[in-house]
Amino acid sequence: MEVNIGEIKDKKGGEIQFHLVEDWSHMRCDGQSLHCISPVIFDGKITCTGELFLVRGNVSTTIEANCSRCLRPIELEIKAQLDERFQKASHAREQEPIRDEQTDEEDWGREDIQEFRGLTIHLDDVVLENLLVCLPIKPLCEEDCRGLCSQCGQDLNDGECDCITDDIDPRMLQLRKLLDSSD
Ligand SMILES: [Zn+2]
Ligand SMILES: [Zn+2]
């Protein structure tokens, strides 16, 4: 995903509206799973403030994930609001290095600026980052998903298994067995 900012590069207050649609079904990123099963749509605009280019808009897609309890594949709609700042690399070099690790909270605002070269702002990285932040940590197929039996692995949404599934102390379990057998 990219936008050419040629027409507003020297125009303070200039704006470019964009509507980008891209198939990211083959996108994979290290250590994170983002499996997009519908195109990534980015509606937004770029505003030139003189020195910075502000990129704002909404990104949406549908991803496939696994329910964190029963592991069934599920589809999730992901929507992210983007608000990013870009700066031409030549300006950037006159100042502090831009993409260093953020160590000091006071520097956050300044360092949270992306750089670009030429007349093209590449948006893949910021779109990806923003989508990843929106992923639920524990996606569920349904709010009341019953998950898998911790002992036999049966999907309890399909029905009960024969295990004793109470989170009970093993010693208590022995006691219970004794009580049961004494009936
Ligand atoms: Zn589930
Ligand atoms: Zn079981």
Summarize it.
With about 180 residues, the chain is an alpha+beta fold. It has helices at about 90-95, 110, 125-135, 170-180, and strands at about 1-5, 15-20, 35, 40-50, 50-65, 75-90, 115, 120. The protein has 2 domains: about 1-145, no CATH class; about 145-183, no CATH class.
Compounds present?
Answer: zinc ion
Helix content class: 10-25%
Q: What's the helix-strand series?
A: EEEEEEHHEEHH
The rounded distance between the terminal residues' Cα atoms is 70 Å
Regions with little confidence, pLDDT below 50 for 5+ residues? none
Q: Give the biggest beta sheet.
A: 6 strands, mixed
Rg estimate, integer Å: 25 Å
| Percent of residues in beta strands | 25-35%
Give the overall form: elongated
Number of domains: 2
Q: Please provide the count of β strands.
A: 8
- Number of discrete helical segments: 4
Question: Taking all residues together, what is the mean pLDDT?
Answer: 85
- What is the SS-derived class? alpha+beta
